[in-house]
Amino acid sequence: MKTLSPLFLFLLLISANSFLPPPPSASAAYHDYADALAKSILFFEGQRSGYLPPDQRLPWRANSGLSDGWTYNADLTGGYYDAGDNVKFGFPLAFTTTMLAWSIIEFADVMPPAELRNSLVAVRWSSDYLLKSVSQLPNRIFVQVGDPNADHNCWERPEDMDTPRTVYAVDAPNPASDVAGETGACPFYCDFDGYQDELLWGAAWLRRASSDDTYLNYLQENGKTLGAEDNINEFGWDNKHAGLNVLVSKEVLESSMVTLQSYKASADSFMCTLIPQSSSSHIDYTPGGLIYRPGGSNLQHATTISFLLLAYANYLERTSQSVNCGNLDVSPYALRSQAKRQVDYILGDNPKGLSYMVGYSDNYPQRIHHRGSSLPSVKDHPAAIACKEGSVYFNSTGPNPNVLTGAIVGGPSEDDEYPDDRADFKKSEPTTYINAPFVGVLAYFAANPDFS
User: What span is annotated as the signal peptide, if there is one (predicted)?
Assistant: First the structure.
């Protein structure tokens, strides 16, 4: 492992500078995408760790994790809790930060000024923490804070947590390219798909940020070896290949970089898998039209894929191109239509008539799997609530007392059913990496509310 990870260098550079799935059962409705955008960004303030600023907009949260890093004589305060627990996992946090940043890079020109500022603040909150994680000790990257087993055995507010704030780190002599490439510990965030995609992902972002030919050469020379041409039909914190191919394709399309053509071919192939009418379609959908992959937290796939559809549509439109899917040509409009279907499903155009974004519309999940949201706030209940004392709130059938505005939950099952059960974490738990790509997606539709 090198002393400076690609993510670290990327953060420094950033700091310096129509084909549709099956129709839904519920009738389509008007959506206030601008409102959803604002709420999707506000969610991140509910995930903050560390000292909260005076302009904190979710008042039921307070300071937490103030001793993080002390065991290493390091300051690891700040960052985000990744989901409904109180652990800071570096691997998914890095992906969250990247997708927030990409949302801004791709759609800043159409964001309302206030939400552009709020989204930049959200990126800064996590990037400041990630910079701490790679810069405090030579040749060491801190990748996680908090003992996940102890944490998951308790139901505590982050402000009260007394579980071990164990710090996990990787050192230069020991291989950990997946984390270093996008600064995770098993069994909670195992990199099942290997480290190869992270190496290419890191190189692609460094190329995008710096225009340095060193990274161009790396992409040219290592793409095939590291699996860039693999036929991957997902994109997320674990597998970056589809996002990598879309990102690199921008340079192929807009700068005629023919030596990277294989990445564009893979991006085209991925887009074709998303179109039901394409002969190469092999993405599954629920009866109501939601992209579906088994394993839980399904909406992470819907939000990330929607982002890629819109980003690729932008690149194609700027160069007056379409995607050849063999039996049909797919236009930028068709890709955007596909993304819009996913967005509208999440916001309520689904068989349940339920918004899967908390606080959006009058009908949304009330019992999300989230400690801070489900326990009384420290302002309403100043006395500490110990590890097992929180169980009564976990087991309650009542709604969460604190609304985690903007949180997108894991989502429904393959039959479009959603029980709104706090204990069913695969469906009811929100995560930062579900929301992050949705910021860019909502920014596009907020600027184009009449797209149809």
Answer: 1-18
Question: Which residue among 156, 234, 251, 429 is the active-site one?
Answer: 429
Residue 194 has pLDDT above 80, yes or no: no
Q: Which has the closest alpha carbon to 252: 242, 264, 244, 240?
A: 264
Average pLDDT across the chain, whole number: 90
Bridge partners, residue 340, by sequence: none
Task: Tell me what pLDDT residue 187 has.
Answer: 61
Inform me whether the pLDDT recorded for 1 exceeds 50: no
Is 420 one of the annotated active-site residues of the chain? yes
Give me the catalytic one of 238, 369, 370, 416. 369
Which entry of 284, 317, 420, 424 is annotated as an active-site residue? 420
Q: Which residues have a Cβ under 8 Å from the Cβ of 191 and sit 6 or more positions away? A: 91, 178, 179, 184, 198, 238
pLDDT band at 233 (very low <50, low <70, confident <90, very high): confident
Q: Which two tokens stand for residue 333?
A: 């409009």
Pairing relationship of beta strands 284-285 and 167-171 according to DSSP bridges? unpaired
HSE toward the beta carbon, residue 180, CA cutoff 13 A: 20
The pTM is what? 0.92
Q: Check if 284 is active-site.
A: no
Phi–psi pair at 80, nearest 5 degrees: -120, 145
213 counts as catalytic: no
